[in-house]
Amino acid sequence: MASVYGFSQTLSEGSAFNARTLQANDLITEHNNKVLGDYQNAKKQQTRDEADDSTTFEEDAAIQGTEDGKGLLSTGIGAFSLGQDMASAGGVGAGLAKQTAERQAQISSTFSKLTQGEQAVASPPVKLGSTGIGAATGAEDAAAAAKTAAGGAGAASEEIGSSGVGSAIIKGILKKGGAGKVLSEAGLSTVSEIGGKAAGDFGGITDAVEGFANLAENKNFFGNDDATEKWGDSFQMAGAAMDVVGTAFPPLELLGGATGLIGGLLDGIDSLGKDEKKKQSDAAPLIDPNKDPAKAGIVDTKISPAYQSLGLVASAPVSAKMSITGSSGAF
Predict the structure, then answer these.
(1) What's the CA gap between 30 and 47, in Å, rounded?
(2) In this predicted model, what pLDDT tens digit does every residue of 222-269 receive, in sequence order?
(3) What are φ and ψ of residue 126, in 5° steps?
(4) How far is Cα of residue 261 from the mean position of the Cα atoms in its chain?
(5) In terms of C-beta density within 10 A (0-12 exposed, 13-18 middle, 19 or more buried), how is residue 19 classed?
(6) Residue 247: which residues within 8 A CB-CB, separation 6 or more?
(7) Phi-psi region of 222 (alpha: psi -120 to 50; beta: other; left: phi over 0)
(8) 3-class SS at 126?
(9) pLDDT in tens, 129-170
């Protein structure tokens, strides 16, 4: 009787315990299904992220290459022009003085045309130079003055050269777009010069604005501790400042362009490096629950110990594979 009684008591305890085990196994199954669902979603997201990373890298490389190429072209032309002026003027100091005088004379002439009208100011023909616009001399000056005195029609249509490649491109676009019908030659020149400065110094100006915004929020001026980015931003801000001041002093404009170019190169290296790190991070292998259940977080379902002690179920727990498919095991 004792053995029968003991068996009945154990069976009763097993039934009570089994109800709680079933409830626990339902939760385990729900958890395992979530792990599987998360893995499938992560695979899909990884595919999208890898495609976005590749696109971002290509876009950043193209933008950086274009900006650096423009900066290198402008700086190169400016250096060549400065060398020519130094050679013709007979020395470094004389060449710098010549460029500065020509630029300031052109600024004064353009300003007078804007305020007094195209025909009110007699201005000599000009030539395109990367660091400034030099006035013609000798017979050309006399011819220009005579044309202006004769009626002013020639002065009204006189073309004003641009101080750099960027300004020249902007002015050309404005003319083709019909802006010349609304703005005078002096107006087109002014707009293109301002636009050229804004476009060329955009990176440095943006960095400066963001820096002051960071200070207003009691943050680091650069917003982070990335050494390469700090150096790049510093060079670009310094280059932008020198370029603006160099509007009336072309040699400083040339130095600003070279400084900004160095900053742009550093920023480009930093940006592309970060893009590459993100590509590698997003492409990191995912843990497959079907191949490595335990590492992926799959949990085995439980078996009632009372039933197991009676030999009513196998002694081993339900396999991870059965857990994944949702089976709660045999009882």
Answers:
(1) 26
(2) 777 778 888 888 888 888 888 888 877 888 888 888 888 888 888 888
(3) -125, 160
(4) 16
(5) exposed
(6) 103, 107, 163, 193, 197, 253
(7) alpha
(8) strand
(9) 444 433 333 444 444 444 444 344 444 446 776 666 667 777
- Residue-wise pLDDT for 94-131, tens only, equals 888 888 888 888 778 777 877 776 654 444 444 444 44
Q: Is residue 14 part of a domain?
A: no
| 237 Rama class: left (phi>0) / alpha (psi -120 to 50) / beta | alpha
Residue 67's pLDDT is what? 77
Do the beta carbons of residue 261 and residue 68 sit within 8 Å?
yes
In the block, tokens 């676009």 appear at 173
On whether residue 96 sits in a domain, the answer given is yes
CA angle 297, 302, 303 (to 5 degrees): 160
Domain count, the chain: 1
Bridge partner list, 126 = 135
pLDDT tens for residues 272-313?
A: 998 999 999 999 999 999 889 889 888 887 765 554 554 444
Rg (CA), the chain: 38
> How many alpha carbons fall within 13 Å on the CB side of residue 71?
27
Query: Contact 193/214 with Cβ under 8 angstroms?
Result: no
pTM over 0.85: no
Strand partners, 127: 134
pLDDT score at 44 = 93
Cβ atoms < 10 Å from Cβ of 33: 14
Task: Decide the pairing of beta strands 134-135 and 126-127.
Answer: antiparallel
The dihedrals phi and psi of 132, each to the nearest 5 degrees, come to 165, 175
The count of other CB atoms within 10 Å of the CB of residue 44 is: 9
| Residue 35 belongs to a domain | no
Classify residue 328: in a domain, yes or no: no
Task: Round to whole Å and give the CA distance between 269 and 205.
Answer: 20
Residue 144's contacts (CB-CB under 8 Å, 6 or more residues apart) are 122, 123, 124, 125, 136, 154, 155, 158
Domain that holds residue 114: 57-282
